Amino acid sequence: MKVFEHMPELEGDEMQYINRLLNDIPEDKIETFVRVYEARRKDPMLLLVLALIGFFGVAGIHRFFIGHIGMGILYFLTAGLCFIGTIVDMINYKNFAFEYNRKIALEVKGELGL
Questions:
Q1: Residue-wise pLDDT tens digits, 35-88
Q2: Is the pTM of this model over 0.85?
Q3: Half-sphere exposure of residue 54, counting CA atoms within 13 Å on the CB side?
Q4: Confidence band of 96 (pLDDT split at 50, 70, 90)
Q5: Which end of the chain is more exposed for a tag (fewer CB within 10 A), N or C?
Q6: Within 13 Å and on the Cβ side, how many CA atoms surround 2?
Q7: If we measure between CA atoms, which residue out of 39, 43, 45 comes closest to residue 108?
């Protein structure tokens, strides 16, 4: 398991996905991939905290954080779709983070020519 050696903080689907992505990458390039990926990935727990801020402050920050600008504006203007959208997002926060991180992993792999 190459991933666990380099990124022990990953868990679940993200770990499996990155492990499959790294299978065809030479060992000397893995370190570069890991450094770039770790700098760009979003932590799911931070996403959950930002969604919680929607209840007490500004709704939609978590959507801006993962690049969903349109939904972030909508959440901001509608108080998180009357808090229902924020609750749903707090349940699905790991999926949002994984979706974003999967996109970032593919971008990093492409940028490095792997």
A1: 999 999 999 999 999 999 988 889 999 999 999 999 999 999 999 889 999 999
A2: yes
A3: 33
A4: very high
A5: N
A6: 17
A7: 39
Tokens, residue 49: 């905290």
End-to-end Cα spacing for the chain: 19
pLDDT at residue 8, as a whole number: 84
**Tokens representing 4?**
């666990």
The pLDDT of residue 26 is 84
CB within 8 Å of 7: residues ≥ 6 apart: 15, 18, 34, 37, 38
- Spell out the long-range contacts of 28-32 with Cβ–Cβ below 8 A and sequence spacing 24 or more: 29/112, 29/114, 30/2, 30/6, 31/6, 32/112
Torsion, Cα 47 48 54 56, to 10 degrees, reads: -130
Tokens at 10, concatenated: 């990953």
pLDDT of 1 higher than 80: no
